[in-house]
User: Which sequence fits this backbone?
């Protein structure tokens, strides 16, 4: 009587499966436990095993077919057995193109090793070649090939000396196990922890920035500035200053000057919130703090009356103050009283960042590095030079529109740098 091989339920949540590939061909002798196909479930691709012995009479499903649980995959039985009734029972005519027969595997006969069987056990028949073909199940052939075992050297325990899965597994078990790789030598790392005493400067920085972040509602505005003209203008200015022994001007110096000029035009950014007094302090001068990294943390030496100074003068003062900061020779007066602050991390390859407001300022400008980027000009894509600036604002005193207008002015000044050079 023919036996139906149905789509099994292979996972708890499985409702259907996709037949990925067959491991056997029609006409092959199948033994219980042989893998006949692979099925893709809702979780993984899994093997389908036969539960009975017999000949694979028909592959009803083909690779790529999706079948519900219980759907007919194949029919197993005795060679020549009528399967029409089973096909009709499953509602299919079973019209499936037969796969081409497997080519015989020609092998050169080799001496068959004789093993001593345990006392009282009969020695199983060997899988002798028949008409140039060794009798073996498809799964046994695949397993033997994967492990480099010649079929003619194996002893078959199946019907008529057929080599089946357990025969290959037994031979694999006899093979000497590969030498285990030496375990890597574990060298414990230094698990100690250093206790570094916090300097007073670091304590003050930690306290002030924590107070700023938790008491000032920050919001951020970012502008992408075209600095192609600024690069050209800076080169020309440095060439001129080099002839007279002047300072070398950096991009940061131009940004500082642009901020000073913009603060004059937008005084509502050049402010301090004084909640205890219930007022907003609006400054009629511009003192810009410039963040400088030192060994113990960060200091902000101040450029006084920056709105009245040229780019070259600002460059000279910043350089002198930075040297004094790194030598720890700044006086408190040189670090106090700023009305606005800038912080630059562009020299470290940082494209953009957001900075914490430096009290009692209402704003701080974070300056990113200059980058090459494609831009569209007059409908064409060309190489461009851009720099991102991000303004952190205290929303208690600086509204979004006020901050945005200030950033628009800074952007305009940096994209037309000649105007900065003409200002005193």
Assistant:
């Amino acid at each position: 009587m023919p036996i139906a091989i149905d789509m099994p339920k292979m996972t708890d949540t499985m409702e259907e499966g996709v037949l990925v590939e067959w491991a056997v061909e029609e006409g092959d002798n199948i033994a219980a436990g042989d893998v006949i196909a692979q099925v893709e479930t809702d979780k993984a691709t899994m093997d389908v095993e036969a539960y009975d012995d017999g000949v694979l009479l028909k592959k009803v499903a083909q690779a790529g077919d999706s079948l519900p649980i219980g759907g007919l995959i194949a029919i197993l039985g005795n060679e020549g057995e009528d399967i029409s009734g089973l096909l009709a029972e499953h509602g299919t005519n079973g019209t499936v193109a037969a796969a081409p027969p497997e080519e015989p595997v020609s092998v050169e006969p080799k001496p068959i090793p004789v093993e001593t069987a345990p006392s009282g056990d009969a020695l199983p028949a060997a899988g002798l070649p028949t008409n140039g073909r060794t009798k073996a199940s498809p799964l046994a052939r695949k397993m033997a090939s994967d492990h480099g075992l010649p079929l003619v050297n194996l002893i078959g325990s199946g019907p008529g000396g057929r080599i089946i899965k357990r025969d290959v597994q037994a031979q694999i078990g006899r093979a000497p196990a590969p030498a285990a790789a030496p375990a890597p030598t574990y060298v414990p790392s230094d698990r100690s922890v250093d206790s570094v005493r916090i300097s007073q400067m670091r304590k003050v920085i930690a306290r002030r920035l924590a107070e700023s972040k938790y008491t000032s509602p920050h919001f951020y505005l970012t502008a992408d500035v075209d600095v192609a003209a600024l690069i050209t203008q800076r080169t020309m200015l440095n060439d001129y200053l080099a002839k007279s022994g002047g300072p070398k001007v950096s991009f940061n110096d131009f940004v500082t000057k642009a901020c000073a000029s913009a603060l004059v035009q937008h005084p509502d950014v050049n402010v301090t919130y004084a909640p205890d007094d219930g007022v907003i302090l609006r400054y009629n001068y511009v003192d810009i703090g410039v963040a400088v990294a030192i060994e113990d943390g960060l200091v902000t030496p101040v450029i006084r009356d920056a709105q009245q100074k040229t780019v070259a003068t600002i460059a000279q003062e910043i350089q002198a103050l930075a040297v004094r900061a790194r030598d720890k020779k700044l006086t408190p007066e040189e670090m106090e009283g700023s009305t606005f602050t800038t912080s630059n991390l562009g020299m470290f390859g940082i494209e953009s960042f957001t900075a914490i407001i430096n009290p009692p300022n209402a704003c701080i400008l974070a300056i990113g590095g200059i980058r090459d980027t494609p831009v569209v000009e007059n409908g064409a894509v060309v190489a461009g030079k851009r720099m991102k600036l991000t303004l952190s604002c205290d929303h208690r005193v600086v509204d979004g529109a006020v901050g945005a207008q200030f950033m628009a002015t800074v952007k305009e000044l940096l994209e037309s740098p000649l105007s900065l050079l003409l200002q005193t």
Summary: Residues 223 and 407 are 7 Å apart (CA to CA). Residues 93-127 have pLDDT under 50 and may be disordered. The longest strand covers residues 363-377.
